[in-house]
């Protein structure tokens, strides 16, 4: 899935100490922790697509219909539903768009009402097969991974979520909504807070017992205020009677 002719050198830690590999894939005992690995890009879009489809496991489904990995999803998807993609989808497709002959609108958004999957696949194939040596300096450090990222996104849509040319008409990859930039930062921060260890999380500003005590005091103040107000009204009424 790497661009044709691109060489990527990775260390032992780069591969086996990543979150996806830890506790999932045990490294071979014959490998030394100082080992280095070189991956050679073949740009084989057909093989890349097959490998990605194999990872969208649809063999197990405990619901009536699933997308992949036993996640429920209604099928077929209604043609009236609208879908939007943001963040990495936008960055990736922005680099792929020239090969699809698709231009963004005034807000920078991409609309697929006149595009089909065949055109997208042809563009991805062209990207994957383009030799890395043909890239003129300065070379974009993310360009070698455009083949994989594009293939993953569109394989996910077609085979993971069962989208087709009809549904694609209601699909958009957006940069702005109502002239406001759409990004991933809020979702990222919310997700990251879940990974903070309990020992580093701030303590509660108030405990349950303290809250109960404050609530009880507030009730006492309200009751006392009501009694005082009643006595004041009664006192004023008596004075007016005199």
UniProtKB/TrEMBL annotation:
Keyword line: Hydrolase, Membrane, Transmembrane, Transmembrane helix
GO cellular component: plasma membrane
GO MF annotations, alphabetized: GDP phosphatase activity; ribonucleoside triphosphate phosphatase activity; UDP phosphatase activity
TM regions (residue ranges): 211-237
Top-level lineage group: Eukaryota
GO biological process, one term: nucleoside diphosphate catabolic process
PANTHER family reported for this sequence: ADENOSINE/GUANOSINE DIPHOSPHATASE (PTHR11782), GUANOSINE-DIPHOSPHATASE (PTHR11782:SF83)
Family classification: Belongs to the GDA1/CD39 NTPase family.
Protein name (database record): Uncharacterized protein
Species whose genome carries this gene: Rotaria magnacalcarata
């Amino acid at each position: 899935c790497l661009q044709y002719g691109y060489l990527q050198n990775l260390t032992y830690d780069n591969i086996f100490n990543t979150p996806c590999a830890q506790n999932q894939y045990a490294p071979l005992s014959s490998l030394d922790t100082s080992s280095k690995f070189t991956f050679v890009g073949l740009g084989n879009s057909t093989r890349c697509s097959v490998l990605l489809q194999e990872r969208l496991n649809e063999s197990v489904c405990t619901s009536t219909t699933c997308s992949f990995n036993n996640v429920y999803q209604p099928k077929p998807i209604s043609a009236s539903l609208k879908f939007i993609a943001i963040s990495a989808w936008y960055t990736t497709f922005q680099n792929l768009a020239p090969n699809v002959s698709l231009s963004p609108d005034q807000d920078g958004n991409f609309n697929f009402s006149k595009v089909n999957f065949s055109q997208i696949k042809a563009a991805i194939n062209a990207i994957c097969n383009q030799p890395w040596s043909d890239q003129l300096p300065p070379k974009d450090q993310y360009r070698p991974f455009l083949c994989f990222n594009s293939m993953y996104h569109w394989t996910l849509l077609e085979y993971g979520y069962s989208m087709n040319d009809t549904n694609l008409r209601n699909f958009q990859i957006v940069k702005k909504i109502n002239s406001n930039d759409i990004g991933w930062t809020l979702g990222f921060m919310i997700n990251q807070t879940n990974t903070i260890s309990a020992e580093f999380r701030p303590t509660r500003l108030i405990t349950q017992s303290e809250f109960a005590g404050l609530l009880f005091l507030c009730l006492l103040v309200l009751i006392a205020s009501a009694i005082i107000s009643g006595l004041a009204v009664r006192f004023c009424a008596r004075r007016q009677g005199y």
